[in-house]
Specification:
By secondary structure, the protein is an alpha+beta fold. The protein has one domain: archaeoglobus fulgidus dsm 4304 superfamily (archaeoglobus fulgidus dsm 4304 fold, 2-Layer Sandwich). Helix content is 27%, strand content 31%. The protein is built from 4 helices and 8 strands. It has an 8-stranded mixed sheet with strand order 3-2-1-4-5-8-7-6, sandwiched between helices. α1 (46-59) crosses α2. InterPro entries: Endonuclease-V (IPR007581).
Length: 187
């Protein structure tokens, strides 16, 4: 069972995190946590800003997921430990980051077919992979994070994408977090 978690927030103030647990194409459980973001957005420092709210949303999921997908970097980070890695360590849960582009790593783009991947390296180590989740669509980056390797991250992202660009758990978590923000106003 895979889960994803996403935060919807402005720069500082009210925020909502949503977690979605899936098995294949089926949503098994959801959780929305409301809180306040006290630290402004700063690239590379999301753990202090979003970590506690994300952990609260994941903690409300039952049953516990086998792996967690986040819209965040893992080892492709200036300190080799982005939000996906930190949250996984805090929750003792394998994690994979999924982003539109690498943070620091470099590598050639993947081929044009669904399932094509190519390595992204930082200081010679493979820290992520480009993954083509749908034929002709822009690839996403699958980040190795807590207890995952780049190859495993790419496989999980591909398996949960079902031929569309963004993996289903992340799409659903993003929708729920935005809906929570729109409906609930201030936490």
């Amino acid at each position: 069972m895979a889960a994803a978690v996403v935060v919807s927030a402005g720069d500082v103030g009210p925020a909502w995190a949503a977690a979605v647990l899936t098995r294949g194409e089926r949503v098994l459980a959801t959780e929305v946590a409301a809180g306040v973001v006290r630290v402004p957005y700063e690239p590379g420092s999301l753990v202090a800003r979003d970590g506690p709210l994300l952990a609260a949303a994941v903690g409300g999921l039952h049953p516990r997921p086998d792996v967690l997908l986040l819209a965040a970097a893992g080892r492709d980070h200036p300190r080799r430990a982005g939000l996906a890695l930190h949250l996984g360590a805090d929750l003792d849960l394998p994690t994979v980051g999924v982003t539109d582009r690498p943070l620091l790593a470099v590598g050639p783009p993947p081929g044009p077919a669904r399932g094509d991947t190519s390595p992204l390296r930082l200081d010679g180590a493979e820290v992520a992979r480009w993954v083509r989740t749908a034929a002709g669509a822009r690839p996403v980056v699958a980040h190795a994070a807590w207890r995952t390797a780049a190859e495993v991250a790419a496989g999980l992202v591909l398996a949960s994408s079902s031929g569309v660009r963004t993996p289903l758990p992340l799409r659903e978590a993003r929708r729920l977090a935005r809906d929570g923000r729109a409906r609930r106003g201030r936490p």
